[in-house]
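Bit of a strange request maybe. I'm writing a small parser for C-alpha cell strings and I need a real example to test against, not something I typed by hand. Could someone generate the C-alpha cells for this chain?
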Amino acid sequence: MPSDLRKINAKECVGCRICELVCSLKHYGVINPQRARIRVYRLEEWDEIETCRHCKKPKCVEACPTGALEIVEDRVVLDREKCNLCGACIEACPFPGALRIFDNELLKCDLCGGEPECVTHCPSGALTLRAVTAAAAAENTEI
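Reply from user aminoacidic:
Good idea to test on real output. This should exercise your parser:
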C-alpha cells in the first residue's frame, strides 16, 4: 500500500472548507467549492468529509462500463477520455458524495499526484497522510 493516502478524521474538522477551496484552485485555477473533489457537509453536530478513499476493492471500478476507472499503484485513477458520465461509479460507491458529476465532468480525487493540497492546508488536522494498514484498506475505512 502507498504511504501517502489520506486519513480522514471528521471529528477534528472545524468546517472551514479550506480543503474545498485549495482543491478547486489546484485543479481549475479558481476558488469554487462546487469544483472541489472533496466536500464538507455540516450535519447536526459535526462535519462530514466526503472524497474518494481509493479503496482496495473499489466498487466504482467494477461498475464502470468503459474502463475509465482503474487501479494504478493502489490508487483509483480516472481516465477522463474514457468516461461517458453514466454515473455507474457514483451509484456503486458506498461513500455518498465521494464521486459526483459537475459541469459535465466526473469529479474524483487524484490525491494531487501525491501531494494533496487538502492535507497541506487543513488547519485542524482532520486530513492527514498516513500509511494505510491492509485491514483498513480491506474494510474501506479511514482511507
